[in-house]
Amino acid sequence: MSQSDNSSSPGIRIAGVSKVYSGTSRPAVDDVSLDIADGEFITLLGPSGSGKTTMLSMLAGFVSVSGGKIEIDGRDVSRQKPHKRNLGVVFQQYALFPHMTVTKNIAFPLQQRRMSKAQIAAKVGEALKLVHLEEYADRLPSQLSGGQQQRVALARAVVYHPRALLMDEPLGALDRKLRDELQREIARMHRELGMTFIFVTHDQHEALTLSDRIAVFNEGRVEQVGTPSELYERPETLFVAQFLGESTCFRGTVDVSAGVLRCGGFTPRAPRLDARLDGSDGVAVIRPERLELHTDAAAVPAGHNQVRGTVTEIVYVGNHHQVGLRFPDGTSGSAMRLAGRSLPAVPGEEVTVSWDPEHQSIVADPADEPTSGRAAEPLGAPAGT
Amino acid sequence: MSESALKPGVRAGRDGGLGWGLKIVVGLIGLLLIAPTAVVIPMSFSSGTTFQFPPEGWSLRWYESFFTSERWMRSLLTSVQIGLLVAVTATVLGVAVAFGLNRAGFRGRGAIRSLMLAPLIVPSIVVAVAIYGVFLKWQLNGTALGYVVAHTVMALPFVVTVMSTSLAGYDRTLDTAAATLGATAWTTFFRITVPLVAPGVLSGFVFAFVMSLDEVVIALFLQTPDIQTLPVQMYNSITLEIDPTIAAASSLMVVATSIVLLMPQFVRRKRSTS
């Protein structure tokens, strides 16, 4: 099963697309542009209400486009009805036809394409094999588990070789174990089919493990598009830094000529600063696994940024310890210490915290954000204690 | 068992179901509801010529009298014909109304929904007098059309209610899914929507039929010697002559309506197990 009819095509192109629902003033999707390559696994990631599902609905044609256009292989499909777009869609609640058996559900799109009975039987068999549900062919959806139902939905959505497979939080209704299992299935299907997958989720782990690229949505806009490691290691906005993974965030003023961020009390070096940020408020973002803790300030490696901090809390998480920190300027943060390594301090003690400036990102500071990292918040001691 | 052993404070009988006090009340209410039927059915098999309970002897003579009487048979036929016509028209209209209320977003939907239930709330004698007055002017009294129109109005609330419940449970994502799979709106409607709401349509049809079969107040006003429904014939027979044929007629009606009302449930059960 390979997708071959249009391999030289530019894929799916979202060009300046907006959506304003009637009766609302704030756009649900605001001037989003995104090029999706043929065969790519792209994830639209964001919190609820960020516009990712609306974007997917516009791609599928359930929701009309208010501005901009959507092109598939160079053809504008913005005004096309859903049943003409030849896309596969998988819904969070499976949306299997309850009165049809598994076989009939999967055969449905093929019947719409007026295929012969023999062709349908062959393709349904192939699809059932793809999702390992051959023995369940004659069951009704109500006789299957949630995970099995979602597999049927996947089979039904790819059996007619659509141009792309769109998935709206497909694992959202499943419990943890099934979710992991189906995640691997989806990754395998993507490898085997070579089809373009467009995946919507609010779960950062799903996004990081499955995707070739991730587009992070916030308030209707795309904050950043990149590979999982680009987004995690080099977040371009504070939102991306905080939505994907944990981080310690120092706030200050950017000084491009000196190559530093001027925080209250200390000035971490910051290489490769964006000149446009000069003189404005900036945030230094460092991931927990990049923070090193030292009892002796002399042990700090050369070239590292360093600051004194107080250990507020140590949480054992199995394979690592999470170390809560509080800095003199009021910033709270967290560091990670792999299990097996000795802990440098107990809560209440001061340590020297250091990190390689190469591993920090400096992003613009949107004024109204809280002062500490989202994920770090629960670790920080309440103000005033 | 093991559960009550774990919770010594809870009396064993509690989690078994209803307490015995509640059981008695439920039993009494059930008895009250069944009592008339329980009297009528044995009476219909009586061999006496007057109403006797319990009957002194047994016979099928009143059933014979029922099935051989031209008057009874004609009113039975009338009732069934009107009932079927009412069921068809009320189902078509009621299903359309329910779809409209469920799917179209317009102002005053709540008002229309309440208005649809009016025939259930207004005392039927009031409705009957009003219909009688209007039908006199329109010359619909004593016509089959008159019965069908009047009974359709009375049956609509049942159909709309049953259908609305059925549509409320219908997941519109299925329509969306069908569209992405390449189905047109027509195909989606006939292959997905219709099969899934069919039990609701069937229930509505049955309710409408039984409602018409049962209705006596309006039918009394609309009757002429030429056209009388079974309930009217029963009423007339009891005022004019005392004859246990009516017990036979009643028993048949009870059995027939019970079968008709239970039908949708059997259909549903069969579907879910197959």
From TrEMBL, chain A:
Superkingdom per UniProt: Bacteria
E.C. no: 7.6.2.11
Domain ABC transporter: 12-244
Catalytic activity as recorded in UniProt: ATP + H2O + polyamine-[polyamine-binding protein]Side 1 = ADP + phosphate + polyamineSide 2 + [polyamine-binding protein]Side 1
InterPro entries membership: AAA+_ATPase, ABC_SmlMolc_Importer, ABC_transporter-like_ATP-bd, ABC_transporter-like_CS, Mo/tungstate-bd_C_term_dom, P-loop_NTPase, PotA-like, Transp-assoc_OB_typ2
GO terms of molecular function: ABC-type polyamine transporter activity; ATP binding; ATP hydrolysis activity
Keyword tags: ATP-binding, Cell membrane, Membrane, Nucleotide-binding, Translocase, Transport
Region (Disordered): 356-385
Pfam families, per the entry: ABC_tran, TOBE_2
Keyword Electron transport: no
Annotated GO CC locations: ATP-binding cassette (ABC) transporter complex
Annotated NCBIfam families: potA
Subunit and interaction comment: The complex is composed of two ATP-binding proteins (PotA), two transmembrane proteins (PotB and PotC) and a solute-binding protein (PotD).
Family statement drawn from the similarity comment of this UniProt entry: Belongs to the ABC transporter superfamily. Spermidine/putrescine importer (TC 3.A.1.11.1) family.
Role description: Part of the ABC transporter complex PotABCD involved in spermidine/putrescine import. Responsible for energy coupling to the transport system.
Protein name (record): Spermidine/putrescine import ATP-binding protein PotA
Organism: Actinomadura soli
From TrEMBL, chain B:
Domain of life: Bacteria
A Gene Ontology term for the protein's cellular component: plasma membrane
Location within or outside the cell: Cell inner membrane; Cell membrane
Pfam families cross-referenced by the UniProt entry: BPD_transp_1 (PF00528)
Keywords attached to this entry: Cell inner membrane, Cell membrane, Membrane, Transmembrane, Transmembrane helix, Transport
Membrane topology: Multi-pass membrane protein
InterPro entries in the cross-refs: MetI-like, MetI-like_sf
Domain ABC transmembrane type-1 residues, every copy: 76-264
Parts of the chain that traverse the membrane: 20-45, 82-102, 114-135, 147-168, 189-211, 246-267
GO aspect biological process, one term: transmembrane transport
Family: Belongs to the binding-protein-dependent transport system permease family.
Protein name: ABC transporter permease
Annotated source species: Actinomadura soli
